[in-house]
Every structure is written in structure tokens, then in C-alpha cells.
């Protein structure tokens, strides 16, 4: 089949559910922790997330909706506008339920760390909390907030200024994802877990 998606609603496919997110999969999950200028902490997952450069290391995530108590966006972007920093917590299979709990439409004064029963640590290079149970955390300074086409669509780009890795995830000098099985987002309400990996040499490599 072929369809042209409506740029405002995504409609046009004639299916029971929008297939777009199911096509662009799997997507890593950026579990974004932020702290507002008033000291309040927030934690929320974003599946429009990825690394975008090596030197300097940079990541991005996109927020695509708004909350009534945050105007044109949600808590994460609103806090980053105020403070200019955020942390990306990597989601392991073991943290799947806690991550899902933090995805709720909680009020801006609600601390999702507490809602999900997560221990909170303090980042070293930025004023922000992080998930201590996460296998890795990227401490980031915002470099750009890009307004995207469509209502309430914002892309946040940050430079990674500090990286925390759990010691037991480092095997033979490499960060081994099979030690924690990262969670990825598929379409609809579906997720997948990385349980095994394989390597491919690029052309010309031995």
C-alpha cells in the first residue's frame, strides 16, 4: 500500500492505528531528567532520541506535545529552557516498568523519581538529578532548541559533557549492552529488548 500522511493528523493510511512509529523502529529511549529553576525534578522518556555526533559528542531528543500547565510544551523542554541542562538515562530491561510509570501526564510539581520509586543521584558536571540504577547516564548542556514544523514540536540538542557508566557494564574494556539489555521503542505500545548482538566488518576492514 501507499499513502500520503496528513501533515497535521497523520491520517490517510486507512488503518486502525497510525503505522509511522511502527515503521521507524527500533528507536532508543532517552529517559530525560531535568531540574527546573525552582529546584523541582522531572523525569520522562522520549523515543524520538538519538546520538548525532562524535566530536564533540552530541545527542538530541524531540518533544511533540504540550501540557496545560506548561504552555506550548512539556516539563522537560520547559525546564531546559530555564536551566540549559539535562541528563539522558539509558533504560535497561529491568527498568522498563519504572520508565513506563514516568511517562504519565504528571503535574509539573510531581517528582517522577518518587512516583516510580527510583533512587536519585546528583550529576557531577550539571545541576540535575539522574537515575542511579541506569546502566549509563549522559550529562548534557543544551546547545539548541529547534522549533520543528507542526504544533508543539521541539527538538533539543545537547553536548555531552559528562558520561557515567556502571562498572559491571564494562567488559574487556568495552561497554557491553548485553549486561543490561537496553530497551527500545517500537510502534503502538510495543517495545523490544536487545538480548544478543553480532558484528559486521565494513568493506576493506579485516
Explain what the structure shows.
With 206 residues, this protein is mainly beta. It has a single domain, classed as Electron Transport, Fmn-binding Protein, Chain A (Pnp Oxidase, Chain A, Roll). Helix content is 11%, strand content 34%. The protein contains four helices and 14 strands. The strands form four sheets. A seven-stranded antiparallel β-sheet has the order 3-2-6-9-10-5-4, with helices on one face. It has a three-stranded antiparallel β-sheet with strand order 1-13-14, with no helix packed on it. It is globular. It starts with 19 loop residues before the first helix and ends in a 13-residue tail after the last strand. The relative contact order is 0.19. The mean pLDDT is 97. This is NADH-FMN oxidoreductase RutF, flavin reductase (DIM6/NTAB) family. It comes from Loktanella salsilacus.
Question: Radius of gyration, rounded?
Answer: 18 Å
Oligomer: single chain
Low-pLDDT segments, ≥5 res: none
SSE series:
HEEEEEHEHHEEEEEEEE
Q: Helical region count? A: 4
Structural class comes to mainly beta
The CATH architecture would be Roll
CATH topology: Pnp Oxidase, Chain A
Strand content: 25-35%
| Main β sheet profile | 7 strands, antiparallel
CATH superfamily: Electron Transport, Fmn-binding Protein, Chain A
Main CATH class: Mainly Beta
In the residues, how many domains can be counted?
1
Amino acid at each position: 500500500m501507499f499513502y500520503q500522511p496528513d501533515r497535521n493528523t497523520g491520517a490517510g493510511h486507512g488503518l486502525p492505528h497510525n503505522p509511522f512509529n511502527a515503521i521507524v523502529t527500533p528507536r532508543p529511549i532517552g529517559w530525560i531528567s531535568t531540574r527546573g529553576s525552582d529546584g523541582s525534578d522531572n523525569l520522562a522518556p522520549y523515543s524520538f532520541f538519538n546520538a548525532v555526533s562524535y566530536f564533540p559528542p552530541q545527542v538530541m531528543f524531540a518533544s511533540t506535545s504540550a501540557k496545560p500547565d506548561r504552555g506550548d510544551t512539556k516539563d522537560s523542554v520547559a525546564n531546559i529552557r530555564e536551566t540549559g541542562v539535562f541528563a539522558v538515562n539509558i533504560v535497561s530491561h529491568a527498568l522498563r516498568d519504572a520508565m513506563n510509570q514516568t511517562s504519565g501526564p504528571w503535574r509539573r510539581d510531581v517528582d517522577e523519581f518518587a512516583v516510580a520509586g527510583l533512587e536519585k543521584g546528583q550529576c557531577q558536571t550539571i545541576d540535575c538529578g539522574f537515575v542511579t540504577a541506569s546502566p549509563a547516564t549522559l550529562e548534557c548542556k543544551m546547545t539548541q532548541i529547534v522549533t520543528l514544523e507542526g504544533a508543539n514540536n521541539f527538538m533539543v540538542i545537547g553536548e555531552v559533557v559528562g558520561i557515567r557508566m556502571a562498572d559491571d557494564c564494562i567488559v574487556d574494556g568495552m561497554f557491553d549492552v548485553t549486561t543490561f539489555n537496553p530497551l527500545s521503542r517500537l510502534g503502538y505500545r510495543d517495545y523490544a529488548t536487545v538480548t544478543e548482538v553480532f558484528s559486521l566488518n565494513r568493506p576493506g576492514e579485516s
